[in-house]
Write a structure and sequence with these properties.
- This protein is of the alpha/beta class.
- The protein has a single domain, classed as Rossmann fold.
- The chain is 36% helix and 18% strand.
- It is globular and about 45 Å long.
- The chain starts with a helix and ends with a helix.
Length: 270
């Protein structure tokens, strides 16, 4: 098959997905815990699942999985043949650790893989070609931890399939706050987070406004959870499709200078 035909074939295959799962039925599953149903009232997970476009059979990484609330929801969506890697740092509290490990012992958690690893080295070398990465309400924590965020974002980019998605949600800080309130208010300025992610090569493709609260003055901590609205942004980034095409070029890659190949591939997919 000529290289250009291969490129078109690969791009079409990467874009093809099964029809959307019945997210409502997944959320309403009778074997979900009462604690998770209480969290549903605060999180309204239907909107997030629709936004991520998660599908059966996907390989997913859940960064900063904590006790595994979102990890289990994703595991239910991608079942029976998909897998969800739940990453947590080594300093995860014992209570959250116990909740996560308990999930793995249930039928709904049999396709969850526990990864206790640093944020800037979140995956073993043999794990890659991910379809989706979720990073929910934890990115701000990496701003005051000993984390190389640029390296972390490069690792996330490398772990995704070309065309794969990174969905990040976090608590919004005021303009100008940047990363300075990550530990005190548990927030981060949206524009700063976006710049850091895009610097790794990601392209912003969608924004979710379903957790926005413009009335939030963004001057108080969200820990412990306040009894008031919190403005939260949700961003979807994509690893560009042209990134996959180096495979299709095969030996051509070694005979043509990389900048020329890169320029050609960008032209195909932009």
């Amino acid at each position: 098959m000529p290289p250009c035909s291969q490129l078109a074939f690969c791009a079409t295959g990467a874009a093809a997905q099964d029809s959307a799962p019945d997210y409502a039925a997944i959320i309403a599953a009778p074997d979900r815990t009462d604690a998770d149903r209480q969290t549903d009232k605060r999180r309204d997970p239907m909107k997030l699942l629709v936004f991520t476009a998660a599908r059966s059979g996907m390989k997913v990484l859940d960064m900063g999985a904590g006790g595994g609330y979102s990890t289990e929801l994703m595991a239910r969506v991608v079942a029976p043949n998909g897998v969800v890697y739940g990453q947590n740092h080594t300093d995860l509290g014992e209570r959250a650790k116990a909740r996560f490990e308990a999930r793995q012992k249930t039928p709904a958690g049999k396709n969850i893989v526990n990864l206790v690893r640093p944020f800037d080295d979140p995956l073993p070398a043999d794990v890659g070609d991910l379809d989706l990465i979720t990073f929910l309400f934890y990115y701000h924590d990496t701003t005051y931890m000993t984390v190389d965020r640029a390296e972390m974002n490069r690792k996330l980019y490398a772990a995704l399939k070309p065309g794969g998605m990174l969905v990040i949600a976090d608590h919004s800080a005021r303009p100008g706050d940047g990363t300075s309130v990550g530990k005190t208010l548990h927030r981060i300025e949206e524009s700063v987070l976006r710049r850091e992610i895009e610097a790794a090569g990601f392209k912003l493709v969608a924004e979710g406004d379903f957790w926005r609260h413009p009335e939030d003055p963004r001057d108080f901590s969200i820990q412990p959870p306040p009894n008031r609205p919190v403005d939260e942004f949700v961003l979807k980034f994509q690893k560009p499709m042209w990134a996959l095409d180096y495979r299709a070029f095969g030996s051509l890659k070694s005979s043509v200078p990389a900048p020329y190949v890169d320029r050609y591939l960008r032209g195909l997919h932009d």
